[in-house]
Predict the 3D structure of the following.
Amino acid sequence: MEKVDLRSLTYTQLEELVIRAGEKKFRASQVFSWLHEKGVSSIEEMTNLSKAFRETLSQLATIARVDIMEKYVSKKDGTVKYLMRLTDGECIETVVMQYHHGLTICISSQVGCRMGCRFCASTLGGKKRDLLAGEMLGQILSAQADIGKRISNIVMMGIGEPLDNFDNVRTFLELVNDERGLNIGYRHISLSTCGLVHGIAKLAEMNIPITLSISLHAPNDAIRTGMMPVNKAHNIETLLKACRDYQRVTGRRISFEYAMCDGVNDSAENALELAKRLSGMLCHVNLIPVNNVKERNYRKSKKETIEKFIEILAKNGITATVRRELGSDISASCGQLRQKTLEA
Ligand code: SAH
C-alpha cells in the first residue's frame, strides 16, 4: 500500500488516520502542529508522541520532502530564489520577494507545465507531475525556516498551472489558511491561471476571498492564440464570461496579467481593444515587460510604448500598473532556473 503524505491531509483526514493508527482523535492536533506550525520533515521529530505511535504512523504515512538545493539572493532588491528538491529528485522553483507590507512567496504548483505558453520557460520540457498540497506547503515552510521571518503573502505564480492541479490546490488553500497551521488569510493569497474556465468555475463555487489573476496577455483571439495554445480550447470571450461569473459570486476584483511584447500585443490599437473588452469589469491590469527567455523570441516593449498603453487604458476607464521587475539579476522569473539545471 502506498503511504500517504501526512502534510497533504486535511485536519479531518488526519484525525481519521490517527484513529486508524490506534490513537485518540485529539492526537491529531499535536501531529498537525508539528506538520504545519513547526514544519518538521520527519515523523521521528514529533517528540511528544510515543515511540510506538510514531512507528505505526511511519508505516501508514511519510512526509514529502522539499529541500533547498540552491539559493540565490538578488543584490539589487533582496529577492531570494530557491531551487528546491522533492523526494523523487524532481526540482521546482520558489521565490521570496520583499514588499513594504511583508514577505511574499511565489510558489510552484506542478513540476513543469503542459500549457505551452510560447513566452514561458516553465513549459519547455512539458509537465512531469502535479505537486501535492504538502509540497506546496513545504515550499513555504522551507523558505520561512531559511529566512527566519514570517511569510505573510502567497502568489501561486511559479512553475505550473494551478487549476490543472485543482484538487491538490484546493487542499493546499484550505490547509494554509487553517488557523491551527500557517494561518495565512485568503485575502493574502493570489492564484494565477492561463484561463482554464472549468477551474475558474470550481474556484467560484469555493467562494473564498483570494485574488484571481488571469494571464490574458492579448486583446483578441488572433494574438492570444499565437501566444497561448490554451486559447484554442477556451477563447477570450469564454474566459471573460467565466471571470464575470466569478466576480458575481465572490465580489472580488480580478487582476489581468499582460506581458508586454514588442510589436506583438503593445500597439495603441491593442490598448483600445483591451479596454473595450474589459469595460464594466471590476479589475486591474498588471503590465509585465516580457522577460526574454533564451529559447523564445519575444522582446520587451519599449518604455514609451508601455507608458502610452497605460495612458490609453486609463482614458478608457481601466487602471493599469507596471509590475516591478524583482530579482532580474538572479533569473527570478518562473521556470528559468529549473530549465538551466535541466540543461546542465
Ligand atoms: N500557469 C499560471 C501561473 C504561472 S506563470 C498562469 O499562466 O497564470 C505566472 C505569470 O508569469 C503568468 O502571468 C505568465 O503568463 C507570466 N509569464 C510567464 N513567462 C513570462 C515571461 N517570459 N515574461 C513575462 N511574464 C511571463
Notes: The longest helix spans residues 133-147. The chain has two domains: 4-62, 66-343. The mean pLDDT is 94. The pocket of S-adenosyl-L-homocysteine is lined by residues 117, 119-120, 157, 161, 192-194, 215, 257, 259, 288, 290-291, 293, 333-334 (CB under 6 Å).
